[in-house]
């Protein structure tokens, strides 16, 4: 009896000494990790990956604060200090100058110390905005412009740079490969938005850290990590949802499951989406043309193509597709300071119809009966090694070795033509990244590393007679004898905290690049060469100054350079751009360089009102631009009985882009906030040989977004207006990349401005079940984003039900 009584007393004492806080988001109930809890003696603990923190060892006699950079500071009351178990809800803070960023220098640092303009999209926001693709997720920021040639697409534009002039990175691995083209890309949709933990967008040249292609900026996507358990009990986290959208009858299902122990952790992520044909808006704004109606489409009857009248001209027949995304990550601890990571990602789509091509007509008939991107497949497998023990050379050291395999096919058949042409591009990418961080004498931080990447491209093509199943050779898109591109670079970045309020950031990078294409079959086009080779080197750097005062102001000045070396697509592509233009190879290309100057001012007034303003000016030397060209001394080539104007990617003498981005944020109180951002960009290139100044392609019109946000216990809501200004005739480029033929008026290239009214909300039905509902484009406006070949969705009702455990 004495033993039982003694055991009871001991257990009571242990229980009395243990006090646990369970910390979560006030509206979404998301468990919050790394919340710092500090007592009056500055002793602190932090919340674990379950949002829990043991504060038994903290001093209870004074104030105890809870701090997280994205949330308002919370002060424990006297009752909460004494209770054994307390649920704490923190309120998300809209107005702040500081948060942790990872992408500016590939290391964790405070945003207020960085001279770059960076936008961060956190997992909480990703789930709330509830977008169908990663391209739509970026567009929702109001700071990234997105072009679409088909519903299964999305080509982000950063400061007037697009496609192969902006860099996509996932988990530290660059996705841009040797065939990223200069037009419009859809590769970003192969990144499942539902597997993302956060996304960071770095605006402006970032070649010092990331190398080639980062002229307009970097979009760095961080997928969900496999989380370890902080106790002896296995950590289990489940996140699953189903979603339906009315505009394209979207049906999406998703689940991710985290299993974590102390030494090993796993996360599995699966998403399947099926999208029907997209329904555009019915309310025609001023300038909305009839040529955006889908009046006809091609259909095959009895082995013959026919032009069929569409009973609903707003239904964009030929835009449907489906996609499956899978991710598996493992983290393994092999020591106190060593973590190994395995990352496997697979994205597989159905055929994705190229909607803009399927709407083109020749007289009374369609130009194409078929035009699809064949099943698009992206495979990534990587191993990472992270060592966080302080040594003479580094405080943190990370290695990432990666393998990528990209299959990208194009399948097309002209109307009433029996030959279906399939061009197949298979890209294999091997890469190695080493990144290190070292803090020296408290005031200096060094980041340094190297990157090596090898691309191999196999390009094949065939023509299938769909009536006889006879297969014949066809013209390949790139050299049919094999293509390769190899890159190696080293970088050094340094930050000097001169004082508490002044930081200097600088960096330098050296990069070498080589590529080769071989041409075996010259039956279709008579090349004057059988191989093409290039070797390029680039030296880039950056220098930034930041003046700051925590929770008050930030002023930064930045001068930096960027470069993009020509790739296989630039040098060796053969491509039928439109019905009368043919893109041909050019072996005499040089790298293009960007010289950028920018200033950012951020100011907070009364801890409630925040103003941001960024102005930039970028000069491009040897700008790579698609323009008229002579091939074999001819400016036209006869193909399929049609004379086509010859164009090629070329180095134009100089281009310049300048613009501004301005934003305001108000926290009226802890429940209601206001946020607005507007962007303006202007770009021209100068052709000295012709003594002309011509509009640069990919320059978006004025665009932005304005929101009113409401947050309450268990609920979020947002009403927002998204808008674009008009694109006038004089601002369309001559290269054809702005797709004037798909604009409101083909002759003038005019694109009218537009706006949409939208609302979304989320509500917690229970602790584990949450419903999200949205209505986008409430007024059902019919509009088209500049340079896009498909109308945007009309009135769109979106409903999802999410379960979290």
Quick structural gist:
This protein is mainly beta. Helices cover 6% and strands 55% of the residues. 45% of the residues are buried.
Describe the overall structure.
The chain contains seven helices and 54 strands. By secondary structure, it is mostly beta strands. It has three domains: 89 residues, Immunoglobulin-like (Sandwich), CATH 2.60.40; 123 residues, Beta Complex (Ferric Hydroxamate Uptake Protein, Chain A, domain 1); 572 residues, Maltoporin, Chain A (Beta Barrel). The protein has a 22-stranded antiparallel beta barrel. Strands 10-16-17-14-15 form a five-stranded mixed beta sheet.
How widely separated are the two ends? 42 Å
Count the strands? Answer: 54
Proportion in β-strands: over 45%
Architecture per CATH nomenclature, i.e. the level-2 architecture of the largest domain: Beta Barrel
Number of helices in the DSSP assignment = 7
Mean pLDDT, nearest integer? 90
Radius of gyration: 28 Å
Helix content: under 10%
The main pleated sheet reads as:
22 strands, antiparallel, barrel
Main features:
Maltoporin, Chain A, mainly beta, 22-stranded antiparallel barrel, 805 residues, 55% strand, Ferric Hydroxamate Uptake Protein, Chain A, domain 1, Immunoglobulin-like, 3 domains
Question: What's the layout of helices and strands?
Answer:
Elements: H1 2-17, E1 20-25, E2 36-38, E3 44-46, E4 52-54, E5 65-68, E6 71-75, H2 78-82, E7 85-90, E8 100-101, E9 109-110, E10 117-122, H3 123-129, H4 134-139, E11 145-147, E12 155-158, E13 161-162, E14 167-170, E15 173-174, E16 196-203, H5 207-210, E17 217-223, E18 235-245, E19 250-260, E20 264-275, E21 278-279, E22 283-284, E23 296-301, E24 304-309, E25 315-316, E26 321-333, E27 338-349, E28 352-353, H6 355-358, E29 361-362, E30 365-366, E31 368-373, E32 377-387, E33 396-414, E34 419-440, E35 444-465, E36 471-473, E37 483-499, E38 502-518, E39 531-549, E40 553-564, H7 568-572, E41 575-578, E42 581-583, E43 592-605, E44 609-628, E45 636-639, E46 642-667, E47 672-687, E48 692-695, E49 703-712, E50 715-724, E51 754-764, E52 769-776, E53 781-782, E54 796-804
Parallel strand pairs: 1-7, 14-17, 22-53, 42-46
Antiparallel strand pairs: 1-4, 2-3, 2-5, 5-6, 8-9, 10-16, 11-12, 12-13, 14-15, 16-17, 18-19, 18-54, 19-20, 20-26, 21-25, 23-24, 26-27, 27-32, 28-31, 29-30, 31-33, 32-33, 33-34, 34-35, 35-36, 35-37, 37-38, 38-39, 39-40, 40-43, 41-42, 43-44, 44-46, 45-46, 46-47, 47-48, 47-49, 49-50, 50-51, 51-52, ...
């Amino acid at each position: 009896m004495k033993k039982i009584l003694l055991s009871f007393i001991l257990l009571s004492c242990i229980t009395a000494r243990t006090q646990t806080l369970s910390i979560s988001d006030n509206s979404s109930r998301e468990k919050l990790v790394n919340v710092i809890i500090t007592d009056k003696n500055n002793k602190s603990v932090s919340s674990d990956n379950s949002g829990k923190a043991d504060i038994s060892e903290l001093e209870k006699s004074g104030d105890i604060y809870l701090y997280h950079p994205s949330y308002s500071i919370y002060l424990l009351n006297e009752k909460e200090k004494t209770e054994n178990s307390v649920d704490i809800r923190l309120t998300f803070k809209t107005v702040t100058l500081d948060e942790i960023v990872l992408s500016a220098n590939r290391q964790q640092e405070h945003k207020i110390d960085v001279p770059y303009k960076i936008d961060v999209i956190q997992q909480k926001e990703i789930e709330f905005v509830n977008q169908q693709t990663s391209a739509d997720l970026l567009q929702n920021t109001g700071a990234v412009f997105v072009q679409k040639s088909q519903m299964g697409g999305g080509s982000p534009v950063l400061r007037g740079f697009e496609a192969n002039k902006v860099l996509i990175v996932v988990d530290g691995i660059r996705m841009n490969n040797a065939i990223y083209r200069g037009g419009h890309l859809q590769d970003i949709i192969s990144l499942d938005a539902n597997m993302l933990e956060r996304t960071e967008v770095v605006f402006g040249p970032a070649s010092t850290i990331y190398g080639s292609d980062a002229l307009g900026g970097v979009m760095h996507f961080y997928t969900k990590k496999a989380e370890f358990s902080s106790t002896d009990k296995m950590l289990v986290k489940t996140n699953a949802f189903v979603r339906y959208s009315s505009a394209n009858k979207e049906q999406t299902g998703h689940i991710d499951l985290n299993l974590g122990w102390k030494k090993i952790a796993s996360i599995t992520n699966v998403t399947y989406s099926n999208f029907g044909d997209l329904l555009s808006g019915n309310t025609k704004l001023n300038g909305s043309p009839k040529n955006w109606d889908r009046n006809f489409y091609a259909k095959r009857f009895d082995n013959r193509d026919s032009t069929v009248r569409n009973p609903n001209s707003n239904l964009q027949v030929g835009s449907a597709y489906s996609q499956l995304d899978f991710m598996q990550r493992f983290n393994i601890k092999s020591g106190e300071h060593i973590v190994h990571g395995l990352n496997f990602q697979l994205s597989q789509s159905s055929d994705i119809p190229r909607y803009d091509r399927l709407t083109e007509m020749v007289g009374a008939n369609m130009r194409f009966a078929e035009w699809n991107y064949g099943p698009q497949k992206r495979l990534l497998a990587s191993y990472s090694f992270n060592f966080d023990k302080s040594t003479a050379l580094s405080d943190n050291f990370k290695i990432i070795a990666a393998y990528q395999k990209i299959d990208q096919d194009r399948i097309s058949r002209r109307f009433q033509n029996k030959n279906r042409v399939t061009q197949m591009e298979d890209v294999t990418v091997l890469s190695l990244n080493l990144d290190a961080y070292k803090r020296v004498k408290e005031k200096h931080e060094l980041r340094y590393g190297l990157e090596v990447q090898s691309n191999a491209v196999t390009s094949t093509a065939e023509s299938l007679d769909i009536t006889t199943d006879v297969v014949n050779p066809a013209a390949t898109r790139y050299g049919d004898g094999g293509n390769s591109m190899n890159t190696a670079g080293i970088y050094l970045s340094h930050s000097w905290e001169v004082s508490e309020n002044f930081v200097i950031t600088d960096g330098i990078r050296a990069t070498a690049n080589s590529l080769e294409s071989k041409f075996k079959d010259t039956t279709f086009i008579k090349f004057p060469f059988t191989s093409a080779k290039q070797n390029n080197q680039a030296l880039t750097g950056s220098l930034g100054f930041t003046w700051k005062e925590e929770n008050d102001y930030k002023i930064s000045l930045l001068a930096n350079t960027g470069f993009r070396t020509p790739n296989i697509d630039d040098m060796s592509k053969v491509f039928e751009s439109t019905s009368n233009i043919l893109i041909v190879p050019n072996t005499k290309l040089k790298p293009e360089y960007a010289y950028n100057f920018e200033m950012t001012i951020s100011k907070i007034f009364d801890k409630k009102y925040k103003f941001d303003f960024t102005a930039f000016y970028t000069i491009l030397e040897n700008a790579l631009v698609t323009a008229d060209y002579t091939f074999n001394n001819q400016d036209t080539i006869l193909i399929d009985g049609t004379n086509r104007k010859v164009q090629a990617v070329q180095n134009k003498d100089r281009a310049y882009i300048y613009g501004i981005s301005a934003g305001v944020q108000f926290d009226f109180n802890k429940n209601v906030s206001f946020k607005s951002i507007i962007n303006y960009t202007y770009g021209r290139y100068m052709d000295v040989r012709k003594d002309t100044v011509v509009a640069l392609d990919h320059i978006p019109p004025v665009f932005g977004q304005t929101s009113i946000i409401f947050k309450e216990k268990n609920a979020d809501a947002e009403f927002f207006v998204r808008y674009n200004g008009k694109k006038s005739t004089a601002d369309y480029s001559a290269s054809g990349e702005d797709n004037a033929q798909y604009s409101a008026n083909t002759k003038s290239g005019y694109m009218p401005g537009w706006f949409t009214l939208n609302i979304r909300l989320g509500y917690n039905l229970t602790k584990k079940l949450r419903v999200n509902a949205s209505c986008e484009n409430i007024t059902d406006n019919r509009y088209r984003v500049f340079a896009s070949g498909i109308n945007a969705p009309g009135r769109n009702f979106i409903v999802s039900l999410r379960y979290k455990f």
